[in-house]
Amino acid sequence: MLQGVDDPTQEWSFDKEEIKIGSMEDNDIVLHDDTVSRYHCKIVQDDTGYVLVDNRSTNGTFINKVRVREAFLKPGAVLSAGQSQLRFNAKEEEVHIVPSRSDRCAGLIGGNARMREIYSIIEKIAPTATTVVIDGETGTGKEVVAQAIHSLSPRSKNDLVVFDCGAVPPNLIESELFGHEKGSFTGAVMTRSGLFEQADGGTLFLDELGELPFDLQPKLLRALEQREVRRVGSAKASKVDVRIIAATNRNLEDEVKAGRFRQDLFYRLSVVRLHLPSLRERADDIPLLLQHFLDHGSYNKTPAGQPKVRTIARDAMTTLQNYPWPGNVRELVNVVERAVSFCDAQTLELSDLPDYVRTARPPSQAGGTRPSMRKATHSGGHPAVTAIDPAAPAPAPNEELLNQTFKDAKERWVASFERDYIAELLRRNSGNISHAARESDIDRKYFRKLMKKYDIEAAGADDDELD
Predict the structure, then answer these.
(1) From edge to edge, which strands make up the β-sheet containing 272-275?
(2) How far apart are CA 312 and CA 294, in angstroms?
């Protein structure tokens, strides 16, 4: 339903997939306003929601005072065409999605109801050129979703180009995305095409979009609006045909409110938004995921190429389903690989699992008290790391600390906390230093400094690891 802002008695209600707005009489909504174009804009409804599309109007189309070419409409949003303002209210704030009957979708695995809804959305939006924003915790599989959308689209014959906004120094991001001309800056010894040009005809996946520097966001918006890019140091723009899929583990609406993310870019990107559930929210998928990892993981092969471990003991499975999985599916993969390496039988037993998994409390028992750190010993020569036990009381100072001066005791206490905190963050982020630093809101250089200070090594990948 649309309602006039200045005159609430003006109401329009339609039960159709496309609503045309303009000054001509054959529009669904006729606005007698000299500043409104003949066919100014339209609202399109599909299974993913409502999208406002500007029809190259003279004076532009706006949502909440932000000019847009194509953007997702939320209930309560005010759209402006010329000097006319209309308030949008959908009949239902959420579009009903019929879940897929399959427990798999182009590389995604899981029969959980939320995952099956996501499969349905992917199958509907994949054939389109719609911009998609995927949000969710680190390790939930945002890049796998992007790959699924690309593989099911007509663009699959061309490249899916991946760029992690948080893994490249801010001063190099513009050159990476848009390219540069020879001599345009120190070190530019040759002309280089950017990722937009490399993804022409295909899909560009922007991971960790919330890390994109604020001063570069207008250039990204222009590329999306005008479908053209200009290399650094060049006066010539090049047309590109690129579908954008972005991912973030931040709440972009909060980032907009905090002034760290442009509102106009947010509206332009948020045509379709997919939220991926954490692994603890779909623990019923863990048996299916585990069987897939055992069947297809290269780490679970005998010299003859047969699966080494074939089944998982019931108590081990229960423990894995009760563990809160702060690192989500990525952490599950790492735990399975480690457990398989210690298992000498065809059945994975509880004793094969890491101590911090076996001793963790289920999420339902983990609330109500202040969090603290506890040690989790690893076998097999691996260094001990820490795990957060949210239900444990804060540790009291031991006798040795109480016999020291306040200053000395505090220094030792802080050092112990820093060492445990850094080690736990690295474990939660599968050894990825950039992601761990980002989660803790610590500068990456200082994070590395703390690692060096406490002789902590990252067991996993660093900046090249993606969601």
Answers:
(1) 160-164, 203-207, 243-248, 132-135, 272-275
(2) 10
Its pTM surpasses 0.70? no
List alpha helices for 304-405, DSSP H: 314-322, 328-342, 355-358, 399-402
For residue 132, the tally of other CB atoms under 10 A from its CB is 26
The correct CATH number of 2-88 out of 3.20.20.10, 3.30.70.600, 2.10.220.10, 2.60.200.20 is 2.60.200.20
Q: Is the pLDDT of residue 140 over 70?
A: yes
Joined together, the tokens standing for residue 36 give: 């409104």
Polymer length of the chain: 467
Query: Is the CATH code 3.40.50.1220 the one for domain 104-183+190-275?
Result: no
Phi and psi torsions of 82, nearest 5°: 60, -130
452 token code pair: 């060096």
Whether 294 contacts 256, CB under 8 Å: no
97-106 confidence digits (pLDDT tens): 788 999 999 9
Instruction: Tell me the mean pLDDT in the region 239-256.
Output: 91
**Which neighbouring-strand residues pair with 109?**
104
